[in-house]
Design goal:
rod-shaped, 7 helices
C-alpha cells in the first residue's frame, strides 16, 4: 500500500523478516521453557504463566513482563540455593556440635560413674574402719574394767594378808613378852593397857579364873581353851630357865622374821601390781583417745564423702538428662536435615539447569528485540 501511494520501494521485506524472527523467537522460547523440569512449585507456576502468555491467541506478547518474570525467577532460584547452602551448613555445624557434646557428655557420665563407684568403696571402707575403732574402744573399756576388778581382788587379798601377818607379829610379840616376864623379868616390857572384859570374861573372872585383858578377846578365848590339862610332862634332863627361854625366843624371832619377809614381799608385789595396773590404764586411755579421735576423723571424712557422693549422683542425673535431650534433638535434627544433606547436590544441579534455561530463554528474547530494532533502522 505504501508503495502504491508513494511509488517508492518500501520496507516490506524487513517487516516479513521481523515477523519471521518474532515467530521463531516465540517458538524457541516455548521450546526452551517446555524442556525445563522444574524443581520447585514456583518455577512450575512461572513456566505455566509464561507458556500461557506465549500461547495468547491474540498474538500480542509483552516481552518486558516475560523478561522481568524470568529475572525474578532467576533471583528466586539463586536465593533458594543460598538458603539451601545456609541450611546445609547449619545442619553440618549442628551435627558436629552435637557429636562433640555427645562425646563430652558420655565422657562426663563415665567419669562420674567411676567416681561414684570409688566414693561408695571409700565410704564402705571408712564405715568399716569406724566400726573397728569403736569395737577396739569397747574392748579397751572391757579390759580396763576386768583389770580393775582383778586389782580390787588382789588389793583386798593383800590387805587381808598384811592384817593377818601384822596381828600374828603382834601376838608373837605379846607371847615373847609373857615369856620374858617368866624367864627374864628384867627384859620384859610393860603390857599394853588392859581392855574392858567381855561378858564371858567377866563370868570367868567371877568364877575365880584368870583372863589376860591385854590380849584380843578372840586370842584370849583360844588361849583359855588351850589351857585344858594335858598329859604329864616327860621326865627329862633339867635345863636352866635362861636356856629354856632362848630356844623359844629364837623360834618366835624366826617366825616374826618370816612374817615380816612375807609382808615385805607382799608389799612389793602389791606395789608392782598397782604400778602395772596404772600403766595399763594409762596406755588404755591413750589408745582409747587415739581410737576415738580416729573414729571421729573418719566419721567426718565419711560424712564429707557422702555429701560428695550425693552431689556426684545429682551431676550424673543431670548429665544423663542432657544426653537424653541431646539424643532427642539429634533425632529431630535428622528429620530437618537428612533430606537437604542427601539431595543438596541434586537440587543445586537442578536449579543450575533451570537458571541456565531461563537465561537462554531471556537471551532469545533479547536477540528478538535486537533484531526488531535493527529492522526498524533499515526502514
Amino acid at each position: 500500500e505504501i508503495a502504491e501511494v508513494t511509488g517508492v520501494q518500501t520496507c516490506a521485506l524487513p517487516i516479513l523478516q521481523v515477523r519471521a524472527t518474532k515467530g521463531s523467537a516465540l517458538t524457541k522460547v516455548k521450546a526452551l521453557l517446555s524442556e525445563q523440569k522444574p524443581a520447585s512449585p514456583a518455577v512450575a507456576l512461572m513456566q505455566n504463566t509464561l507458556m500461557a502468555s506465549l500461547k495468547n491467541k491474540s498474538g500480542k506478547v509483552d516481552f518486558s513482563k516475560v523478561t522481568k518474570m524470568i529475572d525474578d525467577m532467576v533471583t528466586l532460584l539463586g536465593q533458594e540455593q543460598k538458603d539451601d547452602a545456609k541450611h546445609r551448613d547449619w545442619c553440618n555445624s549442628e551435627f558436629d556440635v552435637s557429636a562433640d557434646s555427645d562425646k563430652e557428655l558420655n565422657r562426663a557420665i563415665e567419669g562420674l560413674s567411676s567416681s561414684i563407684s570409688q566414693m561408695k568403696d571409700e565410704i564402705a571402707s571408712l564405715d568399716a574402719a569406724i566400726k573397728a575403732a569403736y569395737a577396739k574402744v569397747a574392748e579397751l573399756d572391757k579390759s580396763v574394767a576386768e583389770a580393775g576388778e582383778q586389782r580390787k581382788e588382789e588389793h583386798a587379798e593383800f590387805t587381808q594378808t598384811i592384817q593377818a601377818n601384822q596381828m600374828a607379829v603382834e601376838l608373837i610379840g605379846k607371847a615373847k613378852n609373857k615369856l620374858q616376864k617368866f624367864y627374864n623379868p628384867d627384859l620384859a616390857v610393860d603390857e599394853t593397857p588392859e581392855r574392858a572384859p567381855t561378858a564371858e570374861e567377866k563370868a570367868i573372872m567371877a568364877a575365880g579364873g584368870e583372863v589376860d585383858l591385854t590380849q584380843p578377846a578372840a586370842f584370849v578365848q583360844v588361849h583359855m581353851h588351850s589351857q585344858q590339862p594335858g598329859p604329864a610332862p616327860e621326865v627329862g634332863s633339867y635345863k636352866p630357865k635362861g636356856q629354856k627361854s632362848a630356844g623359844v625366843m629364837a623360834l618366835m624371832d624366826g617366825l616374826v622374821k618370816e612374817l615380816e619377809t612375807d609382808m615385805s614381799e607382799a608389799e612389793h608385789e602389791e606395789s608392782t601390781a598397782q604400778k602395772d595396773y596404772e600403766e595399763l590404764v594409762a596406755d588404755a586411755q591413750a589408745s582409747r583417745a587415739e581410737e576415738t579421735k580416729s573414729a571421729t576423723t573418719k566419721s567426718k571424712a565419711k560424712a564429707d564423702q557422702e555429701g560428695n557422693l550425693e552431689e556426684a549422683k545429682r551431676g550424673l542425673s543431670l548429665k544423663e538428662t542432657a544426653l537424653s535431650e541431646l539424643t532427642t534433638y539429634v533425632a529431630d535434627l535428622h528429620q530437618q536435615c537428612d533430606f537437604i544433606l542427601k539431595s543438596f547436590d541434586e537440587r543445586k544441579e537442578a536449579r543450575t539447569s533451570e537458571i541456565e534455561g531461563l537465561k537462554r530463554a531471556k537471551a532469545v528474547l533479547a536477540d528478538r528485540k535486537s533484531t526488531r530494532l535493527n529492522s526498524s533502522h533499515l526502514c
